[in-house]
Amino acid sequence: MNDTRQGLLESTQQESSRFGNSFLPGLLFVGLIWLIHLLAYLSDAELGFLGIYPRRFYGLVGVFLGPLLHGDLKHLLSNTFPLVLLSGFILFIHRREGAKVIALVYLLSGVLTWFIGRQAHHIGASGVVYGMAGYLLFRGIITRDRGAMAVAFAVLFMYSGLFYGLFPNEERISWEGHLGGLIAGLVGALLYGQKPVATLYNKESSVKVQPNITERHTTNTFVPYYLHYTINYSITPPDKVKDPYTYTITPDKPAGQQPTRHQYSASVSKIKTQSHGNR
Question: What is d(CA 272, CA 203) in angstroms, rounded to the nearest whole number?
Answer without folding.
Answer: 42
